[in-house]
Amino acid sequence: MDNNFNEDMFYEYWIGKDINLSKYWSAYKNGNGYMQKFENMRCYVFEITFETPSRNLPLFNLEPIYKTLKSYYHELKKDLLSENEYNSSGPLFIYEINRGSGIFTFLGELWYTLVLGTTLTEEKIKGQRIDNLDKKLRMLKEYFGEGCVRADLFEKFIKADTPIETQEALQNLFDEKIKAVRISRQPFMGEIEENRKDMIDLKNIQSDHNDNNKGN
């Protein structure tokens, strides 16, 4: 049995027993500051596609996937950014979950979603070396622009520590089989289908780059 197993959490997760509803509604009603912050942020569409779940079954893994991504994004920023940058940055906002396709869609700031997305496609966690980093950074700059890619964040990622709990959570996330990680090339302006016309799949970026070079 899982050493971290908590029977109360088990019943809360599976049958909705003893959920602190007032806590969630209070957090929502007191979140106007973050809603206003979002309006002032330059967010991009960030989509992760997992192996497509069976259409005839509920989406059992929704909560752990969602919480793991939110938590790791926060942890990345806390470790990689200065205090001022961290305080001015925003979280990863959930936009939608497409039940039939396994796609989780978020909105986040480009600098940080590029680090998150690249490391998820590599199945890397903080403190691990990223293979061919210089080459990957050049390709990212080619697709997203020179000023949109910060090499210092990737370098800090390699030097950061990852708590055991986070390592286990990320391994569980990888076990759900990530098929694609896509980021929009243009900021989100309220019409997500416009962004989806021009998104980059970070899992395919290297093969796309090589194919383009063959045509030159």
Automatic annotation (TrEMBL):
This is Uncharacterized protein. It comes from Sediminibacterium roseum.
